[in-house]
Amino acid sequence: MNTLEVIGRKRDxxxxxxxxxxxxxxxxxxxxIPDYQMAAWLMAICIRGMTRAETLAxxxxxxxxxxxxxLSAIEGIKVDKHSTGGVGDKVTLIAAPxxxxxxxxxxxxxxxxxxxxxxxxxxxxxxxxxxxxxxPERFIRxxxxxxxxxxxxxxxxxxxxxxxxxxxxxxxxxPSMPLIASSVMSxxxxxxxxxxxxxxxxxxxxxxxxxxxxxxLASEMVQIGEGAGRxxxxxxxxxxxxxxxxxxxxxxxxxxxxxLAGKGDEELLQVSLVVAREMCWLAEVNSDPDDALRSGAGLxxxxxxxxxxxxxxxxxxxxxxxxxxxxxxxxxxxxxxDALEVGLVGLELGVGRKKKEDRVDHAAGIVIEAPVGARxxxxxxxxxxxxxxxxxxxxxxxxLTKAWRLGANEVKRPPHVLARVDKDGVSKAD
Length: 430
Description:
By secondary structure, the protein is of the alpha+beta class. It folds into three domains: 3-49, Transferase, Pyrimidine Nucleoside Phosphorylase, Chain A, domain 3; 79-314 and 417-424, 3-Layer(aba) Sandwich (Pyrimidine Nucleoside Phosphorylase, Chain A, domain 2); 322-407, Pyrimidine nucleoside phosphorylase-like, C-terminal domain (Aldehyde Oxidoreductase, domain 3, Alpha-Beta Complex). It is 43% helix and 17% strand. The chain has 17 helices and 14 strands. Strand 13 and strand 14 (425-428) form a beta hairpin. The protein is globular.
């Protein structure tokens, strides 16, 4: 094949064969196709798009570029769960143990913080002694014995995605539906699960800005999953306001523990239960996550998972030396909390990474005292900043305060789950 002819076909709006996509990816991985030609192809995709057949072929080629985890030693239907990222999103730490307590086998490979959105691995590593670097044998054994393991992806999985994403990041080709969908789903398929529950977020604190775009992305990913032989369901959820009451690594682990103990934010709990029910449905397990919550089985499963990965919860989670209360400058009802601003403040505090090599501060973060719908008086606390120094905490007070929008009228908290997408189409969430 001729590289220029293949690139030109997409430039002119043509459709690639699976062989052409494989030719480009394998050539790029070998170094035979240079960055500038691959960048031209990525830009052509951004402009011209891809058919679903092309997107599935791209995903399969990316999966084939590296290792695929073999989970055949685990009995039953294995179910993975993935979120596209949000602020205060600790649903994995709640829903996955609840599903596992119901009998679902949950082998989950997770990621780290990306910009203002949190990373499950960073959260788990705030537990003293815990490791997320599990060899395949240990990972599989833990899923068989505990029902759940959450670990880092092997660097040998989907190497094509790593190269392509690095190139997309510097060539303005990140916002492309087929490229986003294939990037996410190639990693999920390579992780080896039989079924996948996707949490596709939209709004101020998410990558997708609006509901329609989120539904389009969810539909694209569901079709890829089903086309690759994985039963796939997507929930489309709002991320205009932070989810739950905390943003930060250790703070979110503690909130997950509290929620599993029946003392969590009601919205966070309900979203987690919806996700856990979908995981049970895909696994063909009839147990009810509500029962696992009430009995304490979900909390017990989470604690067993942490211990199996070396975590010593009994030693306590990291605590920031400075905890600064942020007062409200006026009275009223909390109409909204800007999730993006809260996430960016968290980034300043060290919750995430501005650069890949940055170290996270596991104790840093924000605890929300006045959630959406609450009535506050002037001087009452909006939030508490957890920081490594007084100077750092004071430096973000003004910005954090502006994230709260107050009004004179009583506010009802908006619905969080807005749509469900499966192979049969889109339906409104209950």
